[in-house]
Specification:
Blueprint (H helix, E strand, L loop, with lengths): L6 H6 L16 H9 L2 H7 L1 E3 L15 H6 L5 E3 L4 H13 L8 E4 L12 H5 L4 H17 L4 E2 L23 H16 L10 E7 L18 H8 L1 H8 L4 E4 L3 E2 L2 E2 L4 H11 L5 E3 L7 H5 L4 H11 L4 E2 L3 H11 L5 H18 L13 H5 L3 H14 L1 E4 L12 E5 L25 H8 L4 E5 L8 H7 L13 H13 L3 E7 L18 H12 L4 E6 L7 H5 L2 E5 L7 H9 L65 E8 L3 E2 L5 E9 L5 E11 L10 E10 L4 E8 L6 E2 L5 E2 L3 E8 L6 E7 L1
Parallel strand pairs: 1-2, 1-10, 2-3, 3-4, 4-5, 5-6, 6-9, 12-13, 12-14, 14-15, 15-16, 18-26
Antiparallel strand pairs: 7-8, 11-16, 17-19, 19-22, 20-21, 20-25, 23-24, 25-26
This protein binds beta-D-glucopyranose.
Keywords: Glycosidase, Hydrolase, Periplasm, Signal
GO molecular function, one term: beta-glucosidase activity
Family: Belongs to the glycosyl hydrolase 3 family.
Amino acid sequence: MKNTLPKFLLVLAIASFGSAVAQKQQAIPEVEALLKKMTLEEKIGQLNLLTPGGGVATGSVVSKNVEEKIKAGNVGGLFGVSGPDKIRQAQEIAVKKTRLGIPLLIGSDIIHGYKTTFPTPLGLSSSWDMNLIEQTAQIAAKEATADGINWNFSPMVDIARDPRWGRIAEGAGEDPYLGSQVAKAMVRGYQQKDLTNEATMIATVKHFALYGASEGGRDYNTTDMSRVRMFNEYLPPYKAAIDAGAESVMSSFNDVDGVPASGNKWLLTDLLRDKWGFEGFVVSDYTSVNEMIAHGMGDLQAVSALSINAGLDMDMVGEGFLTTLKKSVDEGKVSEETITQACRRILVAKYKLGLFKDPYKYSDSKRPKRDILTDANKKLAREAARKSFVLFKNENNTLPLSKTAKIALVGPLADSKNNMLGTWAPTGDPQLSVSILEGLKNVAPNARITYAKGANISNDTSFAKKVNVFGPRLEISEESAEALLAEALKAAENADVIVAVVGEASEMSGEAASRTDISIPESQKVLIRELTKTGKPVVLALMSGRPLVIMEELDLPVSILQIWHPGIEAGNAVADVLFGDYNPSGKLTATWPRNVGQIPIYHSEKNTGRPAPSEAFEKFKSQYLDAPNAPLLAFGFGMSYTTFDYKNLQVSKKEIAQGEAIEVSVDVTNTGAYDGTEIVQLYLHDVVRSLTPPMRTLKGFENVFLKKGETKTVVLTLQADDLKFYNGSLDFVAEAGDFEIFVGGDSNASLKETFTLN
Ligand code: BGC
């Protein structure tokens, strides 16, 4: 084998160690020795992240002359490139053609699987199954690293309480407790215990911070909130991911307290590093440094200086660092030590990945065949999908269906491979996904299935154009709406049951896909109404990346299975549930509103001084004149083909001291006709405290499998920290007093117990 050692390793022997290393960071002798060799320009080069294009470009810029820039030592990492051979070529340029031979970070957005696409994250979170989520991340890492990638721009852990915001699809929903568990599971899955393992990659917590609170649900918009809300409700998942060891953080597009996150020193240094002790590196979002010009923070030199001084280490695509930092150093606006420190953090990441030992460790051309799209990976995708589905309604117990039924399968998403993967799946191939039609045929070969499209996803051509930027997702048929409908009704004529696959196309949610009207488009509403008029049982398999407004549909005599965008095994997983091979067990992780006017909406709301009356109308109460305060579908809600009964809620102690844990037990019985899994949930209410408390907030859950007729005692432990909150001084404290707990199958759980913290 040729000697492919980076040149700098050869000089290590003569390098002197032990130079001053910034703050807490542990000195890595190899990195310190290398830093000593580097010119200011070479250090600035490491802070530059480019994309040669070919992937998804989410800004208006794509990098140019990438190869020349690498050769010139002006690039620290690339993203949007994959394949072991291509990555080897890129590393070869970096290692052999530059003065110091520093290998590249190779990033990518692997949000819900690499080639084996899992359900969109909001769907996946609806499984409430942390082992499963960790396994999906582990498989994503195995596949991505086989294809040359060593750094993932995931997990996205932004709390989202506004379903108009399309990126609610990319996270775990509204709740900081659940969101924190998911964040940890994903970091564990991507990084595992050892980053030098060739099947692991660096995790990036994003988008730091508060991106999910964009005003009006409009993407990239301003955010503004109190510190106590930030600390209690929005920051916990980022912190959980960092505590779990995430090596990198991505700053968000939005401003926080009036300063864009990418240039916000309070966020990136005071909080992230000084308070939370984060030692990894921070990368900007796509051109978010440059975008600070539009935010009104100055010219490119000013915003670049602001960012690096705030604690941002790497500049994604915009090249503001590359083109202005030297000048800022010369003018005394940025210190060389600040640049050295940012560079150090990036070199440490490369060191931890083992790239200095072997820059080609992710370039094994035998791996893709061995590790990508294996049967085992696809099996996990099928399991993940079926566990993500949430049953909203089972009219006259229509479900599960018989495998010999005569089925009219209709709807614009019933035979659409293009929409199975969901948003942010640029590494997946939609054509490899199993359509719903194919899945039904696979699982029930003896069923008699007649298919008809029935309607377009939407008839609005200008809307379709916006949805189709990444490919054909919303295709409008040549046929008239009337003709499409007639075909569906014809297919229904001889059917025992109608299954209508309706909802959102993949790119109707996701980045830059905010909607002000989150109902099912009118073209499909018409289809659904007409189908119910046939008098036949109708099952809606409802696809979306976000909570929708489905007031009308829920009132119709239909069954509804929410299937999100299920991923590569979509059709098989849907069929597993429709035919009862898997009993649905998912529960909502974001509240579904009655109408857009209720937004923002979430389960952990506070009481007001004037709570809405439970009975007759009274003036001067906190309520709407035209709709109840309660959502359409509550956080934690989801039905099963069986039923569960909760009894005998007990606490291990009625009084506890500070620092003590308490056990909560409940008997759960499967009282219905099918075996099934129930997600037992525990909510807490701190009755009196120094900051107005939420009426109830999730503090524990467990997935329990029960055979029909079986009872299990479920024990959930409330740890001392679960009673704590950030008070007005932002100290994390538990205040003495009474607590109420509620346990059940959703956030309206009525079984109640109390205890006192002394
Ligand atoms: C998104 C990020 C993503 C980045 C790189 C941005 O537009 O906000 O989530 O990681 O693009 O693709």
